[in-house]
Amino acid sequence: MSDFVGFDASATLLPTENAESRQMKIGLFYGSTTCYTEIVAEKIQVLLSTDPSLPDGSSVTLHNIKDQPLTLMADYDLLILGISTWDFGELQEDWEAHWDDIAEVDLSGKIVAIYGMGDQLGYAEWFQDAVGMLHQAIAPQDCIRIGFWPVEGYDFIASKAVTEDGEWFYGLALDEENQYDLTDQRLNQWLTQLMNELIAL
Questions:
Q1: pLDDT tens, 97-145?
Q2: pTM for the whole structure
Q3: How many other C-beta atoms lie within 10 A of the C-beta of residue 50?
Q4: Strand 149-150 and strand 168-169: pairing?
Q5: Which residues have C-beta within 8 Å of that of residue 52, sequence separation ≥ 6?
Q6: What are residue 144's DSSP bridge partners?
Q7: How many CA atoms lie within 13 A of 33 on its CB side?
Q8: Which helix (H) or strand (E) holds 28?
Q9: What is the DSSP string of 144-189?
Q10: How big is the CA angle at 117 (ends 66 and 120), to the nearest 5 degrees?
Q11: What is the DSSP letter of 92?
Q12: Closest CA to 161 of 201, 123, 198
């Protein structure tokens, strides 16, 4: 079962020399139908590649799962997975096409973060459902989950992406339909959070 490093983990855990100095191979796997998830992936690559808190020699590589297999996840220390929710809580088409492959990928010891795209007003009862489905798909594996995101600031009815206590999404929740003006701010805050959680490990 996956472990979860909380939003304020950096305040409770001390950094270790290995976490600060070891090169990180970061693989960013995404599926994108209307380009929004891909655009966010590209922003993440740029922001992380220039982040001074990442050790020298670290790399951030993009993988569009439409063209590249999920088995490539085995090559990375940190995985960032991008997914969008479609219609009434449906998976993005590229993730759906490779859904059975997730169980075949060995995520033991991997650090995994998820971000998702959704429409909290148009599909308020299914907001970010795909993030929750992806979280559940990898939860049985022995991986470390980071990047949970608070639900404050959103207006929705229900979501499979929310933790049992109702306080967190299983990953960063972005809404380009209704809160596009908050995307860059949320993304920057989330990436800072990821770096703090990595150091805390």
A1: 999 999 999 999 999 999 999 999 999 999 999 999 999 999 999 999 9
A2: 0.89
A3: 9
A4: antiparallel
A5: none
A6: 3, 111
A7: 16
A8: strand 25-30
A9: EE---EE-TT---S--TTB-TTSSEESSEEE-TTT-GGGHHHHHHH
A10: 145
A11: P
A12: 123
Q: Which residues pair with 113 in a beta bridge?
A: 80
Q: Where are the alpha helices (DSSP H) in 27-161?
A: 36-49, 93-97, 129-138
Backbone angles phi, psi at 16, to 5 degrees: -115, 155
3-class SS shares of the chain: helix, strand, coil, % to 5: 35, 20, 45
Q: Tens digits of per-residue pLDDT, 146-168?
A: 999 999 999 999 999 999 999 99
- Burial class for 109, CB neighbours closer than 10 Å (0-12, 13-18, 19+): exposed
**Both tokens assigned to 33:** 């139908």
% of the chain residues with pLDDT over 70 = 90
Cα separation, 80 vs 27, whole angstroms: 6
Q: Is 166 exposed, middle or buried (0-12, 13-18, 19+ CB in 10 A)?
A: exposed
Encoded tokens for 27: 């693989």
User: Mind listing the pLDDT tens digit for each residue in 179-200?
Assistant: 999 999 999 999 999 999 998 9
CA distance 40 to 115: 9
